[in-house]
Amino acid sequence: MRALVVEDNRKTAAFIARALKAEGLAVSVLRDGDEALGMLAVSGFDVVLLDIMLPGRDGLSVLRQMRGRGNQTPVLLVSARGEVNERVEGLDAGADDYIAKPFALEELVARVRALIRRGGDRVSPVIRVGDLSLDTTTHRAQRGNRAIELTSREYSLLELLMRSAGRICGRMMILEKVWDYDFDPGSNIVDVYVRRLRDKIDSGFEIKLLHSVRGVGYVMKEGA
Length: 224
Prior knowledge:
The protein is 41% helix and 22% strand. It has 224 residues and is an alpha/beta fold. Helix 2 packs parallel to helix 3 (59-68), helix 6 (152-163) crosses helix 7 (171-179) and helix 6 crosses helix 8 (189-201).
């Protein structure tokens, strides 16, 4: 389970992150609304804890942009202000829950657990990275208006890379997840399939999505 904490106060962000990590979540912390939108466009999370007062783009604007893009990740709004009208505005903007500062850590963690449980019932079968989409029910891939034909192995590789968007996938990890260690780790089979996949999803597009990390592996993300 992955959580994104968007909070500009370093102490508060560290406080929340420690609590969520203790619950077994992988936690990413950002302090800027624009950075959060960029991260949400290329990487999937199970829950987002979003402060309203942020540098640059405020939390409500981030939330509206998320929902406008079709991103239905559960969002817990966190604010130093607890007025009814602000709570209503946040919920109307698409928040799933709201908690005011100062809060009891136990309550925040309980609310996060509840959001993750509810979110699991409404997870979309479609994974998106930029303008590339992959339907995990029909196994159909599409970039922009172009349908992409995939072999079963190419589909498995693409699904792994897209679910790990923004994170580097090492060759050994890919071998384990896609080939079940059926191949010699010294084989270049991963590189061969990545080249085939790159030709299918990036060829003809100005923005490249599948990137090599020299000596380490591969990462799916927008931009260099």
